[in-house]
Amino acid sequence: MTSTLIESEDRREYRATRRRGLAVDLSMTLATVLVALVIGFLVILATGKDPVAAYEALLTGPLERSFRVGRWLEDATTLTLLGLSVAIPFRARQISLGAESQLYAGALAAATVAIFLPLPPVAVVLVPLVAAAAAGAGMGFVPGSMKARLGANEIVATLMLNAIVVRVYDYLVNGPLKEPGSSAVHSERIQPDSALTPLTEWLGIPFGRANVGFLLMLLTAVALWLLVTRTPLGYRIRMTGSNPHFAEYGGIRVPRAIEWSFVIGGAVAGLAGAHLVQGVYGRLEPGLAGSLAFEGIVVALLARNNPLVVVVAGLFYSYLRAGGDIMEQQTDVGTEIVVVIQAVIVLLVTAQALPDLLKRRLARGPAPAAQGRPVTGAASNGRTSAGGHTDGRSGVGGASHGLPATGGRVGDRRRGGTDPQGRPGAAHDADGDGHPGGARGEGEAR
Amino acid sequence: MSSVLDVVLSSAFLAAVLRVATPYLLAAMGGLVAERAGISNIALEGQMLSAACTGALVAGYSGSVAAGALAGVTVAVLLGVLLAALRLELGADAIIAGIGLNLLASGGTAYAVFTLLGDKGGTSGLKSGTLPTVPLPGIEDIPVLGDVLSGQNMLTWLAFLAAPFVAWLFYRTRFGFHLRAVGEMPDAAASVGIAVRRVQYAGLALSGALAGLAGVFLSMGYVSFFVRDMTAGRGFIALAAVFLGGLRPWGVFLAALGFGAAEALAVQLGTLDVPPQLVSTIPYAMTLVALALYAWRRKRRGAGEVAPASL
Question: Among A369, B1, B251, B287, which one has the highest count of C-beta atoms within 10 angstroms of its own C-beta?
Fold first, then answer.
């Protein structure tokens, strides 16, 4: 009896902590976005343009006509899928930059099936999707297994794979898959039955090219959320991400978890490719995805790798992209300002110590500017080894289980090691810039 | 097949290799310095792009090529310092911060060009000029060698000097020794009195300067204008060369040269029947295989289950 009472109390407390964490996460995300928007506003102002008119177009434009809403939803589908695809390996603390190769492989697979393979009614839509997911998964498996089995750097591996696959794609679209007799460079159109049904057909609202892929994307997000939070595999991936040594000790086969995170992520990116082929363009186009693959990383970061939040971040970011185009049409401000805003978001999200610094300053009241700085620098500098990403991973890891946990821990530890001057372990500090103390602190935390 | 051989052995091709390899060599050396300082510089791409854009713009508006080049390199240095600051002061992940800086460069340059010139494509409307080429009086007249070596851009020569410079810096100077120590084991370096953060800042600034020279070459070397996203992934390839070269100056030099040669070859073969896209995948495939082999060998040697951060 008592044990169940304690258990339920524990559980309540755990849930309360989680709710608080989510609230902090959300407000941090909102604050990040807000600051980025303000900076974008200032940049427009500084370049001598009218920021108010520009922002009006940017922020209200996409909702003004239904086909603009359609364009937004269409873009959000691809972008969110890409965000989801990197969020999964990020959860295992793997920095996969391979969404590009996975997307192109998926697009190729979907298009090849959808153009050349005659299939019965339902299969004609589904088989290309499955083929795309499989191709993407395959492209994820290569760097994933290289990392998991051999310890090869996944960043280099995924970048190389991107370079290869994009070139092969380019070759195929210009060569074997090029539409015969056409002067333009693109493939033949897919069979009409393979196309994802446009939302217009269902809802009767002219939504342009937006299609059921959007619903598919929502389903994928929910499925991935369930996978991450409710399944043993998801648990293994999360544990691997938060502390691989502990996970190993607890009997989790870390390499397997890493490999799976890449494969799953790859499959989702493959679906993004299928969406572009079956839903948006209806064929293979050169440079199909533009810079979307890297923008997916922003979405995942902004959402702190929570699949459900990725949907929100994806919708938000596509909204900005759609608004940026309208802004450029209606005002003299270039759409690129959106990329600048996005970059500021990334930089703010990565600057982990920033919210921590802010929190401590709020807790202590106004403090001299010099006080917090060396502490932060030293702590973050600890354990930077040859490549700088052993410790660097903490950025992604921290993001994956939310800032409050990491931030709080770091903050406490720093306070613990701080002498009255606000420097960590200054007594052991040989060069006087705060290193050894901070470095030791970081070591203990692991 | 003989036609391929003809192409490869022509002096025009060899000259093209030197030219095409220039940005790779410079950027890869930049990446190497940062990597050995313990901060992965994935922002090479953005640094090159910003430098290329700033160089062309400043040269175009001021009328001075030298001022343009200097401004370009300065911007890249500042981005390097910013990356170091994000990493060291704010605890940012170097990779993610680097991606952010790349985005910033991509959006920022395009926005700047569009705002200043009203042109989305680039600065071709601006008269920017190029950095001088170097004629070699004695060698110019030697049949093949003269065609290959003489008349190359001054930055090409600088690029080929970058590797010995970095090697000298790493292994012959105090700063280089500190840099490697900091990258290898910051705690140990700090305990013997090396100002870890100062060394890392300096390393990242130098890294940015080298990447900046690479960018300046793109917009002010062979051509005299900036084109949107004209780096086209060269920064990432340079980073791959850093790893493929085993984090050693001469290894990185050879890897970068190899990437340059492969790209030049792909361009040349465009006129023949061989699909240039497939030819240009060769260096990347080689890198992938080399990466796997290297990791496999290290694992067999039993370097422990935890892989070092690099490679």
Answer: B287
Distance CA B93, CA A310 (A): 20
Residues of chain B positioned with their CB less than 8 A from the CB of A380 = 87-92
Reference A95, options B95, B45, B236, B292; nearest CA is B95
Q: A336 contacts in B (CB within 8 Å)?
A: 106-108, 110-111, 114
Q: Which residue on chain B is closest to A353 by alpha carbon?
A: B90
The nearest alpha carbon in chain B to A159 belongs to B236
CA distance A324 to A305: 25
A376 pLDDT band, cuts 50/70/90, is: very low
Longest dimension (CA), chain A: 79
* CA distance linking residue B89 with residue A351, whole number of Å: 9
- φ, ψ dihedrals at B174, nearest 5°: -60, -45
Residue B180 main-chain phi, psi, to 5 deg: -65, -40
- For A164, the closest of B87, B187, B285 (CB atoms) is B285
Helix, strand, coil % (nearest 5) of chain B? 75, 0, 25
- B233 vs B207: CA distance, rounded Å: 17
Question: How many CB pairs (< 8 A) connect A and B?
Answer: 266
- A160 touching B, CB under 8 A? yes
> Does residue A387 sit at the B interface (CB-CB below 8 Å)?
yes
The predicted model gives B233-255 an average pLDDT of 88
**DSSP per-residue letters across A271-328:** HHHHIIIIIIISS--TTTTTTHHHHHHHHHHHTTT-HHHHHHHHHHHHHHHHHHHHHH
Amino acid at B173: T
What does the pLDDT read at residue B13?
81
